[in-house]
Amino acid sequence: MAASRNPLLRLEHIRDEIRALSAATVGVAQADFLESYVLRRTTEHAVLIISEAVRALPIELTSRSPGPPWEDIRGIGNILRHDYYAVDPRVLWNILTTHLPALAPVIDRMIGEIEDQG
């Protein structure tokens, strides 16, 4: 399978972006995040990578894990690409502090399942 379509690699990319954002924002208050151009842009870029990686995952794989809002994750990439000027930083904060921490264990479990099969 081509590396660009390898689900395990895509899941690892998602995991790595979530971990990097977590490390970069540990102890950061919402007010500081909202004022920090660098943190907001870092978050936007990581979420864009996560969205692209999810778009490349086979539907058969994501359908076995119905918890995460897969369509929303796929769709946020379009917003970040085409409507970047309208992205509310508070939405990014919510993704960073609520949605990504909830997604992380699902991604870890999916990685484990693939590794166990292989």
UniProtKB/TrEMBL annotation:
Gene Ontology cellular component terms for the protein in this record: toxin-antitoxin complex
GO molecular function, one term: hydrolase activity
Keywords: Hydrolase, Nuclease, Nucleotide-binding, Phosphoprotein, Toxin-antitoxin system
Transmembrane segments: none
Protein name as catalogued: DUF86 domain-containing protein
Domain of life per record: Bacteria
Keyword Nuclease appears in the UniProt entry: yes
InterPro entries per the UniProt record, alphabetical: HepT-like, HepT_RNase_toxin
Database matches in PANTHER family: RNASE MJ1380-RELATED, UPF0331 PROTEIN MJ0127
